[in-house]
Amino acid sequence: MSEIALQAVELVRRIEGDVAHTLVNGIDLSVKKGEFLAITGPSGSGKSSLLYLLGLLDAPSEGEVIICGEPTSKLSESERADVRLTKCGFVFQFHFLLPEFTSLDNVLLPMRAAGKMSEPEMRERGLSLLGSLGLGEHANKRPNQLSGGQRQRVAIARALANRPEIIVADEPTGALDTVSTQQVFKILRDIADQGQTVVVVTHDPALAARADRRIHIVDGKIAESTGQGGGEAVCEMAT
Ligand SMILES: Nc1ncnc2c1ncn2[C@@H]1O[C@H](COP(=O)(O)OP(=O)(O)O)[C@@H](O)[C@H]1O
Ligand SMILES: [Mg+2]
């Protein structure tokens, strides 16, 4: 059986308050190493909430997220932060690059936080990542000197900095033009083909079609799953 990179077990995320609200309502999911999974669904269906749980940016009310075989629900906050920093890379709709930093310095941030490489090693990796994403000429520019597509590629380089097993991306092409959208999707596809696991929320059916598998979320539940992956059902309709 293929190696499972990411697993969600009966995942629930509830918001307590005057009106309790269930954002994620019992999700079971296995994502294989090197799989490219697209998550689709209407606005407000819980896609971002699910992604934040999968990437350890948020903690579930119930259930478990297992990253590379390691259950995370009982980890301390600092242990979770360490798993998040080294095993998960994030790309959002808006790049969230630091405006006063160059592209290279933005890419170095997660490496500095992890503290596992020397300064020359980090710079070499940062430059090599930027080069591989077609940004070799832009390493010393700041975000406001770059186009939207270039900024998003810097954000992808930053997400890849610590060689995470899992890349999660929340509508990474939502603010991009068609050409940049295609570039970003090809990059994510290549990342998966090279063995990292990619989970992308997207509204674009053409992009979702290029994933290995698609899950459609409605009201915090998997309503439909199509394509290969996860090791079990190839096509299943949830009840
Ligand atoms: N922190 C929060 N407190 C209350 N409601 C929230 C919170 N985060 C998200 N929601 C609500 O939960 C639902 C799911 O949100 P979200 O996961 O962002 O959906 P999607 O990404 O599919 O658009 C939405 O109705 C949203 O308004
Ligand atoms: Mg969202």
Descriptive keywords:
4-stranded antiparallel beta sheet; 7 helices; 33% helix; disordered C terminus; binds magnesium ion; 7-stranded mixed beta sheet; Rossmann fold; 239 residues; globular; binds adenosine-5'-diphosphate; alpha/beta
What's the total helix number?
A: 7
User: What compounds are bound to the protein?
Assistant: adenosine-5'-diphosphate, magnesium ion
Number of E strands: 11
| SSE pattern, N- to C-terminal | EEEHEEHEHHHEHEHEEE
CATH superfamily: P-loop containing nucleotide triphosphate hydrolases
Low-confidence stretches: 230-239
Description:
The strands form two sheets. A seven-stranded mixed β-sheet has the order 6-7-8-3-9-10-11. Helix 3 packs parallel to helix 5 and helix 5 packs parallel to helix 6. Helix 6 links the parallel strand 7 and strand 8. The relative contact order is 0.20. The chain has seven helices and eleven strands. The protein is about 35% helix and about 30% strand. The protein has a single domain, classed as Rossmann fold. By secondary structure, the chain is of the alpha/beta class. Magnesium ion binds next to helix 1.
Quick take:
This protein is of the alpha/beta class. It has helices at 47-54, 77-87, 103-114, 119-132, 148-160, 178-193, 205-208, and strands at residues 4-15, 21-32, 36-40, 62-67, 70-71, 88-91, 166-170, 197-201, 213-218, 221-227, 236-237.
